[in-house]
Amino acid sequence: MPAPFEIVRTRLSGSYFLASFSGEGRVLIDGRWARCPSGRAILLPPHTLQAFQTPAGKRWDFCWVRYQERAGQKPLASARTPIVAEFASEPLRLAILGLHHECSTGGALSGRWADLIHEYVTQFAQPAAMDSRLWNLWEEVAASLGNSWTIIEMARQVHLSDKQLQRLCLKELGRSPRQQLIWLRMRHAADLLQTNAKIDSIAREVGYQNPFVFSTTFKRVMGWTPSTYPGRARSSE
User: Fold this and answer.
1) What is the DSSP letter of 107?
2) What DSSP letter does each residue of 40-97 carry, written as one string?
3) What's the sign of the alpha-carbon dihedral 92, 1, 175, 227?
4) CATH second-level architecture of 5-125?
5) What ranges in the chain are assigned the alpha helix state H?
6) Domain ranges of the chain
7) Which residues touch 49 (CB under 8 Å, ≥6 apart)?
8) DSSP 2
9) CA 112 from centre of chain
10) Whether pLDDT at 128 is above 70
11) Under CATH, which architecture does the 132-228 domain have?
12) Tens of pLDDT along 93-106?
């Protein structure tokens, strides 16, 4: 996609994976634009605002996989999977071309190509080499999102300095510790919004004493206000 190119999606119900293999693009992540040059990939969860663009004067070549998770099915992209990370995109690109060829010629191997594509995306979503300290930290944080977490407190949990934790998070998840904390809170809030809980109660449960600050943050990260979020259960508020 040469510039000018921009697309905005607001209501995708499944996970979305994009791998860049030439040039450079930008992806809206957590309400901020992030670079996606060649050799990197992004994995976005369902029901988030998604936007992509090619910067002026550049060309962006990428391949992508969109999932359509069924009701009750756990999304491939979860709150603890990497969102931006290095990725060797050429095998995925060739597998997508193989699937396209099978579908175009009526071949019988389309299922095998689809399985291979899914395996490549799964390897990104569930990296075998992820640092166990990071996984344990976010498991603990996710279990107590109402706490007033600071980067120093989070670093202390895994016996790291705050700068070491910052570097590790950026390398493994593509986010700073603070961004990851906010993401965990917003994803949990999105789940709670599907119940009859009131917005101010949800805000407190995920660590926000001020419902206005919570609503502003939720809209920036997820793309909707809490009251208009898809799947929001109606309540008496």
Assistant:
1) -
2) EEEEE-SSS-EEEEEPTT-BEEEEEEE--PPTTPPPSS-TTS-SEEE---HHHHHHHH
3) negative
4) Sandwich (2.60)
5) 90-105, 110-125, 132-142, 151-157, 162-173, 177-192, 199-205, 211-222
6) 5-125, 132-228
7) 8, 9, 10, 28, 31, 222, 223, 224
8) B
9) 26
10) no
11) Orthogonal Bundle (1.10)
12) 999 999 999 999 98
Rounded distance between C-alpha atoms, residue 78 and residue 83, angstroms? 9
Q: Residue 25 to residues 51, 52, 190: CA-CA distances in angstroms? A: 11, 7, 28
Q: Which of 140, 143, 134 is nearest to 165 (CA)?
A: 134
Strands 40-44 and 84-86: antiparallel
pLDDT band at 90 (very low <50, low <70, confident <90, very high): very high
Distance of alpha carbon 33 from alpha carbon 77, whole angstroms: 19
pTM of the model: 0.76
Q: Which of 121, 119, 118, 151 is nearest to 137 (CA)?
A: 151
Contacts of 191 (CB under 8 A, 6+ apart): none
Question: Mind listing the pLDDT tens digit for each residue in 149-180?
Answer: 999 999 999 999 999 999 988 888 878 999 88
User: What number of residues does the chain have?
Assistant: 237
Q: Amino acid identity, residue 102?
A: E
CB neighbour list of residue 234: distance below 8 Å, 6 or more residues apart = 196
